[in-house]
Amino acid sequence: MTATPTRTPAPRAPKLNLIGLEKSAYKGADSTLCNGCGHDSISSRIINAAWEMGLKQQNVVKFSGIGCSSKTPAYFLGMSHGFNSLHGRMPSVATGALVANHHLVGIGVSGDGDTASIGIGQFKHLVRRNVPMVYIVENNGVYGLTKGQFSATADQGQKLKYAGTNPYMPLDVCLEALAANATFVARSFAGDAKQLEALLKAAIAHKGLAVLDVISPCVTFNNHDESTKSYAFGKEHETPLHDLSFVPSFEQIEIDEYDDETEVQLHDGSWLVLKKLDEHYDPTDKHLAYRTLEDARKQQKLLTGIFYIEPETPNFLDILQMIETPLAHLGEAQTRPSRAALEKLMAEL
Amino acid sequence: MSVIVQEPQTEQVDQLIFNDFNINVATANGSGSQTSNNMLIRSLYKMGIPVTGKNLFPSNIQGLPTWYNIRLSKDGYLARRERVEIMICMNGATVAEDMASVVPGGIILYDDTLPVADHRKDVKFYPMPVRELVKAANLPYNLQRYIANMVYVGVAAYLLEIEMDEIKDALAWNFGGKTKPIELNWSMVTAAYDWAKANLTNDQPYRVRRMTGFNEGTLLVDGNTASAMGAIFAGFTFAAWYPITPSTSIAEALADYAAKLRRDPETQKATYAIVQAEDELAAIGMVMGAGWAGARAMTATSGPGISLMSEFVGYGYFAEIPAVIWDVQRMGPSTGLPTRTSQGDLLAAHTLGHGDGRHPVLIPADPAECFEMAGTAFDLAERLQTPVFVLSDLDIGMNIWITKKFEYPEKPLDRGKVLSAEQLAKFKEEHNGQRWGRYLDVDGDGIPYRTLPGTDHPGAAYFTRGTGHTEYATYSERPHDWENNMLRLARKFETARTLVPAPVIDEVEGATIGIISMGSNHPAIVEARARLREQGIESSYLRVRALPINDAVRAFVEKYDKVYVVENNRDGQLYEILLVDLHEVGYKLVSVAKCDGLPLSARWITEQIAK
After folding, report:
1. Which end of chain B is more exposed for a tag (fewer CB within 10 A), N or C?
2. What distance in Å separates the CA atoms of residue A259 and residue B447, rounded to the nearest whole number?
3. Are A242 and A275 within 8 A, CB to CB?
4. Which residue has better confidence, B398 or B116?
5. Could you read off the pLDDT of B354-372 as tens digits, one per residue?
């Protein structure tokens, strides 16, 4: 009897990123959101983007406010510190934390209630200051945790099971950001994995505040077909401005110029490549951004892509002119002036 | 108070009164009188005379009545005093009531263009030809209104015999050595002085003279400046604030001093950041973020500000984030009296936020304590990982005080229980195999260990939340987890009791009563005790410097039959707190509370206790 030789396949080498980690290392706790929630797809995109960018999680801080969306930072990047703050108050917390340690990469997740209703003031001031961080609005037009009330981004005429028909005009997160002098304004759809990942990577690479308004259907309270925030509507009506791809700074790829492409180089050396679809779109033209967003709003059109970018505008931390060592790490020698300095001050009184 | 009935005075001055009277200057706000008043106070201070200034100003930019009260006290009593011996009338809108307020035998200096209808016979009047003197001085038009106030400085200097060299030095100091404004103002002072010398008969009794024994080793400074200096020397690294009277000058002084003293010597880059936020909600939010990430973070505000901050302060208590909150108290409730003092935020600050919770509160009594407590507050906030309040008030914060020189902090900064990556790696072996948990009490003092974002260890991260959590910072709604955490926080508060500044106690042998007070009431209490002593009532005195109170307060109350709790608010808030904490001996406590927007006077306190 001859033994049949068996062949055990060599274990497939796990795919590692730039800093030698598997993608699974970027996971967080299990999600407790409803099955099929758009927010969970966004968390997956964040995991992918962070892994592919080779982010070191210890140098990332996650921020959020209150609401379904604001729970999600627990579900990604488990090795990053997280600050689940108060309703509508994430911008101020993030501002303080990133000033205290300017070496950190900030990723904020908010919702439409958290940003456009209770938090619109702090949101606009965060934008105005150009605090360097990614600010994601998981926008579903409805309050989930309190079970189905309209938010400020709900379209006029939108219907909800319990709340009825919305009689008011919505706030447009991207227009609000633009009016507050945002340096990165984009919209995407939770169901468009490729575009969202490219935008997330560009947002991480951006030097200032990157506003990402992501339409993220609420499967429980606002996913009926007529809703402009539903999967069906998004799948059918999403109209990308351009075909987006992101080339990180560590990939030494020659960027060729093509007629049907627009390339934007970000501050860190990476590239955002915008491939023309219908019409040429220049994302550095603010007037065009206003007009495009306003037209889309009027036509209730789900237009996605990057509307506006200023890659080199100084951010909040540049303006503060702080020492290279993070404030959080300064010791007594650097922060307590001398005895002689006190004597001198008192003599001047 | 009995009214002294006095015959109209003759030309003869029987007895001169040195360094012991009250000058009240009535002007319109925005007229630049603050400089003139400061020149008077500074000259008197430099002559060694104990002096205090209380600015009674309106919540307005220009044109409403303002009074500035300058008290000279050879015996060193620096509380607000109600009797006015010398009235300087520069404001037509209030001239009638101002003239009526002077005590019999007092004097009135007035701008001679003001309507002086009802001449009192029991006071002396000295007209000042302000308009003519200003005209003669040929001043630039835009400065006339401001410099006109130097006329009363010159006339008062002549009548009271203030040393002119000291006034000149004060001007030089005020204008930072800038020749032009010094000369313009000085020429106005001397013109008025010369006019008074040539035209007035100095037949009034009030005089100043140089003295020693009191002002040596002191500073003349307002509390907000002291608070800012204290923060600079306490190693603050982050401040966020929103403008609000009367706290604004803390942030402004902080920015001024930090720009000079807190730059890296090599790169000239800042070792701090100061952010003017869009409101108080954002100010405290930024402080929370910064404190959480490891900065020594503070804000400065007043009553309406702490109302807005209550949400985050509750969060800070529960999520255990260090923060220092200066509340320079003004009169509430609501918008209240924005430019008047009060001690009405004690309960609010101590209990701010919904649900259970208590916050440590430090209560400085003068600018020197503001300086010292600025450091204490940071150390406590980082040690206890919780928001700590410092309750100053408008009287300390915005008035200038004689205060003892600031002591350079000898203690190293206390940064609290923060684990580095190396300490985290060794945590288990150093704590009997116990794994690190963000909210796990391994030392028995209720204070857990924290890690900062950016700590280079795969296990350093945790998720900070205002919702229920376990000792390992995971979400939990389990009753046991909730209660366990809240009981630990209560334990931490008991640790705070042992760490906050102890009360200052002055016990007098043979005292029959005790007095408990706090903060800016101190000078009035000192003077009231002296007055009570004159009436045969000896008292002991305990000044609460922080909440929670410690055992010394109980021991003090136990010693006396009656203990008067004196404070500047309506409800007797300190009294209420003591009543709860010391309920077994609560029957001994008597509330002596008043709030009318003014600092308490010794007269009122004495009357309340002696009645």
Report:
1. C
2. 63
3. yes
4. B398
5. 999 999 999 999 999 999 9
Tokens of B174: 């005020």
Give me the residues of chain A with pLDDT under 70, please.
Answer: 1-10, 252-253, 255
The values of phi and psi at residue B214, to 5°, are -125, -50
Query: Environment class of residue A188 by beta-carbon count within 10 Å: exposed (0-12), middle (13-18) or buried (19+)?
Result: buried
Whole-complex ipTM: 0.95
pTM: 0.96
The answer for residues whose C-beta is within 8 angstroms of residue B136's C-beta and 6 or more apart is: B191
E-assigned strand segments in A74-169? 81-84, 105-111, 133-139, 142-143, 149-150, 159-160, 164-165
Q: How far apart are CA B198 and CA B71, in angstroms?
A: 28
The C-alpha atoms of residue A278 and residue A240 are separated, in whole angstroms, by 9
Q: Which residue of A has its CA nearest to B411?
A: A332
Which of B271, B458, B474 comes nearest A335 by C-beta?
Answer: B271
Task: Read off φ and ψ for residue A60, nearest 5 degrees.
Answer: -105, 140
- In whole angstroms, give the CA distance from residue B192 to residue B611: 47
Encoded amino acid at A222, one letter = N
- CA B108, CA B96: separation in Å to the nearest integer? 12
pLDDT at B2 over 70: no
The per-residue pLDDT for range B550-602, each reduced to its tens digit, is 999 999 999 999 999 999 999 999 999 999 999 999 999 999 999 999 999 99
B542, β-bridge pairs: B505, B516
- Note the residue count of chain A: 349
Chain A: nearest CA to B1, how far in angstroms? 38
Which amino acid is located at A337 in the chain? P
CA distance A165 to A55: 44
CA atoms within 13 A on the CB side of A319: 13
* Cβ partners under 8 Å of residue B237, min gap 6: A100, A327, A328, A330, A335, B271, B272, B273, B290, B295, B296, B297
By the 8 A CB rule, do B547 and B350 touch?
A: yes
> Angle at which helices B130-137 and B179-199 pack, to 10 degrees?
130
- The length of chain B in residues reads 611
> How would you label B500-530 residue by residue, b for 16+ Cβ within 10 Å and e otherwise?
bbebeeeeeeebebbbbbbbbbbbbbbbbbe
- Tell me if A130 sits within 8 A of A144, measured CB to CB: no
For residue B535, the tally of other CB atoms under 10 A from its CB is 9
**Closest residue in A to B410 (Cα–Cα):** A339
Q: Any idea which residue has 């303006």 for tokens? A: A319
Bridge partners of A149?
A: A143
The reply to whether omega before B181 is within 30° of 0 (cis) is no
- At B467, is the secondary structure helix, strand, or coil? coil
Q: What DSSP designation does A116 have? A: I
Nearest CA in chain A to B321: A83
User: Where are the alpha helices (H) located in A1-37, listed in sequence order?
Assistant: none
Q: How far apart are alpha carbons A295 and B594 in whole angstroms?
A: 63
Q: Which residues of B touch A100 (CB under 8 A)?
A: 237-238, 289-295, 297
Say how far apart CA B399 and CA B222 lie, in whole Å. Answer: 5
| Token pair 């206790």 in the structure block, residue | B609
HSE-CB for B240 with a 13 A CA cutoff: 28
Are B219 and A80 in contact (CB < 8 Å)?
no
Nearest by CB to A93, from B267, B288, B460: name it.
B288
On the 0-12 / 13-18 / 19+ scale of CB atoms within 10 A, A164 is exposed
Tell me the residue type at B93.
A
Cβ(B499)–Cβ(B384) under 8 Å? yes
DSSP H stretches of helix in B123-213? 130-137, 141-147, 150-160, 164-174, 179-199
For A20-74, how does the pLDDT look when each residue is reduced to its tens digit (9 = 90+)? 999 999 999 999 999 999 999 999 999 999 999 999 999 999 999 999 999 999 9
What percentage of chain A exceeds 70 in pLDDT? 96
